[in-house]
Design goal:
It contains 29 helices and 37 strands. The protein is of the alpha/beta class. It has six domains: 255 residues, Beta-Lactamase (2-Layer Sandwich); 101 residues, PAS domain (Beta-Lactamase, 2-Layer Sandwich), CATH 3.30.450; 85 residues, Helix Hairpins (Orthogonal Bundle), CATH 1.10.287; 148 residues, Histidine kinase-like ATPase, C-terminal domain (Heat Shock Protein 90, 2-Layer Sandwich); 110 residues, Rossmann fold; 131 residues, 3-Layer(aba) Sandwich (Rossmann fold). The relative contact order is 0.04. It catalyses: ATP + protein L-histidine = ADP + protein N-phospho-L-histidine.
Amino acid sequence: MKLSASARRGGTFLTALLVLVVISLAINLVIAGTEQRALRRQAQADNGNVVALIARTLDDDLSRVRGDATTLAQTLVAEQVLQDAGPAMRSRAERLLRALADARNDYAQLRLIGADGREVIRVDSHDGLIEIVPPERLQDKSQRPYVQAVARLQAGQVYVSRLDLNIEHGRVVEPHEPTLRIGTPVFSGDGRRLGMVVINVDGSRLLRRFVADARQAHGSVWLADADGNWLHGPDPERDWRFAVPGARRAGLDTDQPGVWAVVKGQHEGQRRGAFGLLTFDQLAPAGNDRVQQDSAVGLRIVALAADPTLASILLDRAHLVGYALTLPVLLLLAAWLAHLRMRLSGVEAEVAANSRLLKDIFDHSRLSMKVKDLQGRIVRANDAAGELLGRPPDQLIGQTVEAVATEATSAIIRQHDREVIDSREVTTYEESVEYLGGSFTLLTTRFPVTDDGGRVVGVGAMSLDITSRIRMEQWLRVAKDQAEAANTAKAAFLANMSHELRTPLNSIIGIGELLLEQAEEEDDDPLTVESLHRVVGAGRHLLTLINDILDISRIDAGRVELVLEPILVSTLAESALSTLQPLAVANGNRLSMVVAADPGVVAIDAVRMRQVLINLLGNAIKFTRDGEITLRLERDVDTLRIAVSDTGIGMTPEQMERIFAPFEQADRSITRRFGGSGLGLAISRQLVQLMGGWIAVESEPGRGSTFTVSIPVGAFEAPSRDPGPAVPDGPSRDSLVLVADDDEDARRLLIGALERHGLPVITACSGAEALQQVRSQRPAVMLLDILLGDMSGWDVLAALRADPLYANLPVILCTVTDPDHRTAALGVVEHMTKPVDRDQLVRLVKRFVRSGPQSNVLVVDDDDHYREQLAMVLRRAGCRVRMAANGQQALAHMEQEPPDLVLLDLVMPVMDGLEVIGAMQGHPLLAHVQVVLVTAADVPQHTVQKLNESAVLLVSKAEVGLDCIARKARDLLDRVESEARDAGTHG
């Protein structure tokens, strides 16, 4: 057995080695063939470039000589010396020819020849030496062929001779002097032939340039004339033999007849043949009547390179080195393949085991598995498939689905099988089928079955019975629809009931508050006062519960729409703190706000954000006695973070898990002790999630709680400073407040709340009357109900905003309905839900009702963002604000219209704050204007003293917020107005 195994291993090794050698040789042949083609392309490309370069160089040289000859023939000197060869004229012509010979350096001779064929002037140039031939040495050239050829030319024509050896006195000059002659006739102004200009070009210089360029070519390069004679070739001994008497002629036709057969019949091109790789071009003057030439002047440039063969490539050094390196690799590969072959028997046994395993899985799987041929006949099925189809698997073989299924089921299955066969892709369908075994809902995956050639020969199907799951889903879907219908009905009921619930509550709370105020003012019976307190408190508690239930219902029904508007976060927070201050004082708590990183102005739904703050702060105040509640504001790039911390009772981890659920508090004892509906935190979390944020809580029992809100906010784009079209001011408004409501009780309650604070009130009970009162009485602000008798409040608002005279009238909505998206679109300054908070209503109305004229404030700061924020706060405080980016702009604004107050930055470009103050003190109209210097820089003590002497108020940006600056500005304006009134009274 060992010998047999060794013999098999050796035979496998030799077979593998032979196969690898054959493959290696085939690869080398392919590589060699590729290299052969690449070498051919490279040789032809290089030789094409070299031949083109030589042809271009020679053509440029000949064109230059023709140009010199033509130019010389047209000169006045040539014409005059051929008419009159006197000493003076001869001297001028000699200087001209000498200068041209010196400039070109490759002209062997320049001659002026008369009409009789005798040389008139001749200049010889040899090895850089220029000689003017004296008259006695001038020769008669009338019998020379080139002279006779030039004498036959017309004006402007040029003669080009062939390139041959110079012959003197009938003998070829030794050493050889290759010469090319170019001539053109000279005519007088009246058309008489005077003679000619002839230039002998030193051909050796042309040949040297030819040799230099030819070195770049592959193989050999020849320069031959039109007859194929060698002018220059790879064997210098054979050059010019055709021109030497008695020498054996050498040419392309004699040495390379195959090449000459191709070259002589064509102008240029490339060929591959038995002679090798041929590249050729013919140099001849342009085919026009201006150039005359000898028949043999056409120079031919021929490059011939050897055609690389596969044998030469395969046997070159690089390939031999490759063979030496490849042989050890082939031996290793052959040994490795022999080792793999010996292991193949073990792999075959493993494959057989896997095949048996797959058969067992197929036979015993609870998935229904079938394999069908292209005609739909079942060729294999397992027991699970037999149970579904209602027949044993062996009875299904050879049958189609029509034998065990209804007609509708058969049509569906045939369609799905055909889809797999046509698309060759795996498909999955949920199918409702009826077999002999019963009706089922199956999740069936089909796949194409292919043969060794990749052709589809059948369809495989695996089906999972999901009948019970489908029935459960149908039941759940019905239950879900019923629940959603109930939830929708609940939301609709609550929304429709909001008016009915809030209208009586408005009367109960409003009349109760009026009675309570009267009882307190008249020092009525304490029991009556206490009873009225209980009535008002119970009414407001009921209102809070109704509002919470409506809010949670609207959120669940998806009826809450966010309205983004630019808002100063610190102002919104201060408003919430101010609203809850009385409740905090009642519990003995201290409210404070910390601004870690000023959020500035952000685009957010201010109504919903205020609701979240009120809920969190109210929750903290409710569960804290004689403690401290802190509101912390912070902004990190595009995220607003708000944290409400208290020192109250705290919570356990179990309590924190359920506090955000509707109608849930920490436990039932807390509900009994502190009250509440348990909806505030649930509403807050859902509102925060609607804004794209999250809310979290951290707490320990007895150590307080911290609720953290994180909301994404976008960058606030400052409003454009373009004032837009001018709006007519109309008559000035007085301090009247217009209350428009069709409910008499509601009007009476609002009138009582406003008149108790000294605010004059007029009323309207319909939309038409409201518009008439606005136009006739010019109120300062209007309180508007939406549900009027003749028209809606939205129609009243639209009519006001369409009239330029009343477009800017402040409108406060006081309704039993919820805020609408039209609120912001129609410029409503506030939406208050009845029953309203009377103190908040009075504070809001007083913002728009002022006894004096509107203050004029100028804000000067080079920080655009800070300037816009401060202007927004001042406008909310009732000031008319203008802005400037530097001191120079500020002075221009002040000279145009002196302000009542200037808020001035210290450090600015162009002109700083101190320079502005100095310029104002020197101006008679600006010296009395109050200045508040707002700066983030450290101000030296001597500068502070100087500012105090100038009555300038100094405020640090880092120490106070925008609202504080606005309050200081308002106080300063009020003091100035008071002093002005006092001065007027005393005067």
